[in-house]
């Protein structure tokens, strides 16, 4: 049985990390929102790796903000009913595919980055879209209380069988 938690772990990557607005990267906004809402049994999003981008003081500040948690292996992500997909310096690459295929309900933060299979996915059918600024995430958490997930439907559509053919899985795993 999966934990009824909206879950994310990852690094503090993002192009904005190089500039003065580094606190506004999508991933730092996500983990800051999780800390602000303070409902870890419902919404658990933390950094598991902090890159300093040539500025060790910045890395120390991120750690001091209390946004860093333990590393969690990808296989353990699947113990959670709800998973967030959020880009860093580019799209989350294999992470979204694995989350979609896991049977978890995936909340995908909108992004300009695209993968080769995104044109086969449909919002509200294969994943739940989240605004880029995360402003709708608290309301989506409220929906979670009423059970918006249907992972058995979302993980078994035609896109899943098409994308999971053995030759495609080899390409994805490289």
How many β-strands, per DSSP?
A: 5
What letter string, H or E per element, gives the SSE order? Answer: EHEHHEHEEHHHH
Sequence of strands across the biggest β-sheet: 2-1-3-4-5
Question: What does the largest sheet look like?
Answer: 5 strands, parallel
Describe this protein's structure.
By secondary structure, this protein is an alpha/beta fold. The chain is 34% helix and 17% strand. The radius of gyration is 16 Å and the shape is globular.
List the helices and strands and how they pair.
Elements: E1 3-11, H1 26-37, E2 43-49, H2 56-64, H3 74-77, E3 80-85, H4 94-101, E4 105-109, E5 128-130, H5 137-145, H6 151-154, H7 158-163, H8 166-173
Parallel strand pairs: 1-2, 1-3, 3-4, 4-5
Short description:
The protein is α/β, with parallel strands linked by helices and 174 residues long. Helix content is 34%, strand content 17%.
């Amino acid at each position: 049985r999966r934990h009824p938690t909206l879950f994310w772990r990852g690094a503090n990557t993002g192009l904005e990390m190089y500039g003065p607005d580094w606190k506004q990267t999508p991933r730092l906004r996500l983990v800051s929102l999780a800390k602000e809402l303070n409902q870890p049994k419902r919404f658990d999003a933390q950094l598991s790796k902090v890159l300093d981008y040539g500025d060790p003081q910045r890395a120390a500040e991120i750690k001091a903000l209390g946004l860093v948690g333990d590393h969690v292996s990808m296989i353990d992500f699947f113990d959670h009913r709800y998973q967030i997909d959020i880009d860093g310096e580019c799209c989350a690459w294999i992470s979204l595919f694995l989350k979609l295929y896991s049977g978890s309900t995936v909340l995908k933060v909108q992004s300009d980055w695209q993968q080769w299979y995104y044109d086969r996915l449909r919002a509200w059918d294969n994943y739940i879209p989240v605004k880029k600024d995360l402003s709708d995430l608290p309301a989506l958490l409220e929906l979670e209380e009423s059970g918006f997930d249907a992972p058995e439907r979302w993980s078994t559509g035609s896109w899943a069988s098409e994308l999971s053919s053995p030759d495609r899985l080899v390409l994805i795993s490289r």
